[in-house]
């Protein structure tokens, strides 16, 4: 069912239900009020007739004469009022019964003798009181007393249809109100449904565009209602989808590039090894060149092993399979050892390694993994710095220790900095060389290890001026929660 019809049906049901409930209550109230007013009016007539009858005799037995009652009945004919009078023995004496003896039921007369009046809502349904008539009457049976002596009973009533005239008018008014409410409701529902469905159609069209791959679609909204809130959420979702799509494309591009790089890196040592093996097999390598060839083959084999090990190491770290043995220790001696270890590689690139650290620098970390992080950062700096300086700094910060590796190398753009810690990413593939980190895994491993330590890592870089990699490792109890 279309939304506009749902609106119409819903509003129709609400209006009908509301008007029916209110109408039923109002009609019931009006009916009760009409009958109560009629009872009071009939009681007033009965009391007046009783007073008049008592005034005509000392013992109160004179129950008015027929001529007066006929005149009274004629006066009240327009109100459709009917009068019957019974004597002290419950025998009807007015109107004239032509010799037929009509009496009240004993049970009814017993109640009246006690001085209690009887209210009859419809004599045609309460036949035990005064019997049925052609037209249904409602009224009262009222006893007349002279002192404590019952001298007569009057039945005075008016037709039910006369009493229920206001109720019939109320019913007509209720039906008219229902029809007007339905007409107004339909008009309002159409306006509201059009207002809502227009917004929903916009959402539907925008959804179809997104399904076709258009992530530039945005829906205008004014934050007036829940549909506008839905439109706002839709816009936010599309923005995220666009970012995700762009990220997926970038990832696919980097993955393709990585596969090409890995194929190139593996093909080069494998080709070298294969060529040397063929040369040895067919004695194509001079005897005095064999040791050098074997050394080259050994170097290329280690290069392949390193590439495989780095991939395996990264996967173990990323999947939290590496158990960290964290302790608090002074990192000064360890940093000095790392500097000495990396000095030879730095010298090959004509780089100067500097160490600017305090006399003691305590850090809470796994010593072996901390060494791995620093080696990878320094090796990365050497890889992209020629004839420059690489400075290693360390200092204590609030609840932790900060370590920095600053170089004067080629630097990176802001876009490259976003992905530098991702697996397989290399900011400048054209300047790779032998050594740890050329596969693009070194910084990814460092980032994963820092995250596992509950620390932080970031980079500040300016193209052609250099980069500064910063690691903050927090003290025990102050680590960042890992996701």
TrEMBL record:
Pfam families: HAMP (PF00672), HATPase_c (PF02518), HisKA (PF00512). It is a multi-pass membrane protein. It is an enzyme of class 2 (transferase). GO terms for molecular function: ATP binding; phosphorelay sensor kinase activity. One of its GO terms (cellular component) is plasma membrane. It catalyses: ATP + protein L-histidine = ADP + protein N-phospho-L-histidine. Keywords: ATP-binding, Cell membrane, Kinase, Membrane, Nucleotide-binding, Phosphoprotein, Transferase, Transmembrane, Transmembrane helix, Two-component regulatory system. Residues 261-477 form the Histidine kinase domain. SUPFAM superfamilies: ATPase domain of HSP90 chaperone/DNA topoisomerase II/histidine kinase, HAMP domain-like, Homodimeric domain of signal transducing histidine kinase. Its main location: membrane. The chain crosses the membrane at residues 6-27, 174-195. It comes from the Bacteria. Residues 194-246 form the HAMP domain. Its EC number is 2.7.13.3. It is found in: Cell membrane; Membrane raft. This is histidine kinase.
């Amino acid at each position: 069912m279309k939304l506009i019809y749902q609106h119409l049906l819903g509003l129709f049901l609400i209006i009908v239900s509301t008007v029916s409930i209110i109408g039923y209550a109002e009609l019931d109230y009006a009916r009760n009020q009409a009958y109560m007013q009629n009872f009071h009016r009939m009681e007033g007539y009965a009391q007046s007739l009783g007073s008049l009858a008592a005034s005509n005799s000392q013992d109160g037995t004179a129950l008015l004469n027929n001529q007066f009652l006929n005149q009274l009945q004629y006066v009240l004919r327009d109100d459709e009022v009917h009068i019957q009078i019974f004597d002290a023995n419950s025998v009807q004496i007015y109107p004239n019964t032509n010799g037929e003896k009509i009496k009240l039921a004993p049970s009814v007369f017993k109640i009246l003798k006690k001085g209690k009046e009887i209210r009859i809502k419809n004599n045609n349904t309460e036949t035990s009181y005064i019997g049925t008539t052609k037209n249904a009457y409602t009224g009262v049976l009222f006893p007349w007393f002279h002192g404590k002596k019952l001298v007569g009973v009057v039945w005075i009533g008016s037709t039910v249809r006369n009493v229920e005239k206001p109720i019939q008018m109320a019913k007509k008014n209720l039906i008219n109100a229902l029809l007007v409410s339905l007409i107004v409701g339909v008009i309002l529902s159409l306006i509201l449904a059009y207002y809502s469905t227009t917004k929903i159609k916009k959402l539907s069209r925008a959804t179809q565009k997104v399904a076709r791959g258009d992530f530039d679609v945005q829906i205008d909204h004014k934050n007036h209602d829940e549909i506008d809130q839905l439109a706002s959420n839709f816009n936010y979702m599309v923005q995220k989808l666009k970012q995700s799509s762009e990220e997926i494309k970038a990832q696919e591009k980097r993955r393709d590039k990585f596969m090409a790089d890995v194929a190139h890196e593996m093909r080069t040592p494998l080709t070298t090894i294969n060529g040397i093996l063929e040369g040895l097999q067919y004695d194509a390598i001079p005897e005095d060149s064999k040791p050098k060839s074997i050394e080259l083959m050994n170097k290329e084999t280690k290069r392949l092993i390193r590439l495989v090990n780095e991939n395996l190491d990264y996967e173990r770290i990323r999947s939290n399979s590496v158990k960290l043995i964290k302790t608090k220790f002074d990192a000064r001696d360890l940093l000095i050892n790392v500097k000495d270890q990396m000095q030879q590689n730095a010298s090959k690139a004509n780089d100067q390694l500097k160490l600017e650290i305090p006399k003691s620098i305590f850090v809470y970390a796994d010593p072996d993994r901390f060494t791995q992080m620093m080696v990878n950062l320094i090796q990365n700096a050497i890889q992209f710095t020629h004839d420059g300086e690489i400075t290693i700094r360390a200092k204590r910060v609030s609840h932790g220790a900060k370590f920095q590796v600053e170089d004067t190398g080629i630097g990176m753009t802001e876009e490259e900095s976003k992905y530098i810690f991702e697996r397989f990413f290399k900011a400048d593939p054209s300047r790779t060389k032998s050594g740890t980190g050329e596969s693009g895994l070194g910084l990814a491993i460092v980032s994963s290890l820092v995250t596992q330590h509950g620390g932080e890592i970031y980079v500040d870089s300016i193209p052609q001026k250099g980069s500064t990699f910063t690691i903050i490792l927090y003290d025990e109890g102050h680590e960042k929660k890992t996701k």
